[in-house]
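Input record, target 12 of the design panel.
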């Protein structure tokens, strides 16, 4: 069994219908810890030792955030800059996070089709996430495809409920462990793998 840590960063969580749906009840799933960074650190004064202890206690890390200007909200970058220290998370002696799984769970206002060459956003979502992927690689972690909910302003209640169901299903599978990582990493999004992997 794995323990899963959700590092959630959203400065306007109360106004995000999609993220409220995705996170509803996840803290009740055995093995899942929800760490709301804006609630925990409204002054951005990150307790580095607390965060390191949380990372060490979990096998799967999720950077859960909205896509803000093609990146994450500021507190998550602050968290990465302070917590993922040289000599602890990376460097020749930095092996604390080695072989832990990590990925982005994110929400985006733009449709999935708009993230492509010759489309509105010009690049794929995976290309915008390269700094996260390289951070994971630097820290010797296993980086998985993102879980992404696109077109958040246009989702019907039924579509939103389906995305929330998929996310909870994913969390359950991560806790259970034994995932076929080789197969999973061939997908662009974890959302695409889940229906096929639900069996």
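The sequence produced for target 12 reads:
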């Amino acid at each position: 069994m794995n323990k899963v840590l959700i590092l959630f960063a959203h400065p306007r969580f109360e106004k995000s219908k999609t993220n409220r749906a995705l996170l509803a009840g996840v803290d009740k799933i055995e093995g899942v810890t929800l760490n709301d960074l804006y609630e925990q650190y409204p002054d951005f004064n990150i307790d580095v030792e607390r965060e390191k202890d949380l990372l060490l206690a979990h096998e799967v890390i999720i950077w859960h955030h909205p896509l803000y200007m093609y990146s994450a909200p500021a507190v998550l970058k602050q968290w990465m800059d302070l917590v993922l220290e040289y000599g602890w998370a990376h460097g020749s002696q930095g092996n604390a996070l080695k072989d832990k799984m990590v990925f982005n769970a994110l929400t985006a206002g733009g449709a999935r089709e708009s993230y492509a060459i010759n489309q509105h956003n010009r690049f794929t979502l995976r290309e915008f996430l390269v700094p996260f992927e390289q951070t994971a690689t630097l820290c010797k972690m296993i980086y998985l495809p993102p879980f992404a909910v696109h077109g958040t302003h246009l989702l019907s209640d039924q579509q939103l409920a389906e995305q929330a169901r998929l996310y909870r299903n994913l969390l359950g599978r991560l806790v259970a462990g034994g995932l076929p990582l080789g197969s999973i990493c061939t997908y662009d999004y974890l959302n695409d793998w889940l229906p096929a992997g639900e069996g």
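The mean pLDDT is 93.
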